[in-house]
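name: query_chain
kind: protein
chains: 1
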Amino acid sequence: MSWLKDDSFYVAVLILLVLIIALRVPLDTDMWWHLRAGEETWNSQSVYLVDTLSYTRAGEPWINHSWLAQVIMIGLYKLGEYKALSLWVGVTAALSMFFLYLQMEGHALIKTFLVLFASFVSSVIWSPRPQIFSFLLFAITGFIIFRFKTAGKKQLYWLAPIFIVWSNLHGGYILGIILIFSVVLGEIFDQVMGEKSENSLNWDEISLLSIWGIAGFVLAAVNPNGIKMWIIPFQTVGVDSLQNLINEWASPDFHQPIQQLMLVLLFGTFAAVGLSKRRLSGSELLNVTIFGILALTARRNFAPFALVATPVLSKHLTSLLPEWKSHLTERFKFISNLTQYQNKSRQEINKTIQLIVNTVVVFTLIFTAGYKWINVSNQEFVEKTEQNIYPIDAVNWIKKEMPEGNLLNEYNWGGYLAWYLRDYQLFVDGRTDLFGDEIIENWLDLFNAAGNWEKSIAEWEINTIFLKRDRPIVQALVQSGWVYGYQDETVVVLSRDE
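structure:
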């Protein structure tokens, strides 16, 4: 059978193209502390649940919701270092988009194009972090619900192991719960208003889905953290400092072209719905609305939004295309002639030639993916990229000189320092749920030389400053007698003049 007679060729092309997009230099500010935490769990053979990486929260319990993902990450790092981490992100992203493809309607070419567009929208979160697991499991959850609604496959029992595994991989399991109950509420709305559409659930099916949604939330406690897992999503979102410190938690910046794609998907979906004669179901409306609001609130939610909006777009766009084609064919005769020529040409093409061409395309994409993977994860290339992002020379100076006392460090460098400066505890790193507003605001006062910053220096016994050179506290400390130990164009290391 020719690959063009079914979805096989398009699926292969899609997966390989997504893989090519997702294969990147495996560096992320949070990757480092995840690796360090995974190493602590790996070495101790017990889940790392008490902080030892900072001096501001030393000995405090930590709800480590990503412990299993961290173990997988350190295992991959031990197995193949950067190459393994890069491939993990690429394969996980490709699998996620495959499950999205399975939820789409229409011709395989249209589905492939839309999923590729959704890939660019989602790609903002494709990095070597536990969050990539949430992306995959969210896509699988959406597929299970889709099959339940459209094919009557009552296989919701798969949600049980999914949520157990999900809650041990990442706190983003709450997105799956939101998705389930968004569908439930939408279906209830349709039933109450008498606005049933194709594939609407009846009351028994709504009840069954609700039960599994509740079960998923309960099963999230099957975790070393126990029922604390029920509060971690709200605890993280409740840190007010998130939007000031972390780009992915900030509202989108639509001056950046890559982020404008989310708006195109949002308005494109509603435009297709408005033009389509098919009814928008209550669950579709709620899914796009709820996850659209989440995406407009924080750019890290672009990915789940893309996963719920794209199937809605494909459904309504598919119903529009035949009507548009018919209308255009009537108005422009050359389109009709072109269509007839294409149909005739397709019939005349030798199936063997067609298969050869398709095979060449697939193997070319395989070669491209392999070439990119080897290059972006090459040790020398990664280290060169690392040199441009992180203060490697300053870290090496610290290792050599070993200044005494606690470090006041940059927030975004915290994870990197936790990985490379094993002899030091840090003021803060990317674990916002552990530090909370109290410590993060204290850190903001310190680097801004605001509030009672001098008192904080004394109370925390800070003896070494490891910050970007333009931080206000740097000049304030130099004026008060602190001395430069190391400095370059980006970073300074200051110590007390004893």
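note: Residues 195 and 448 are 57 Å apart (CA to CA).
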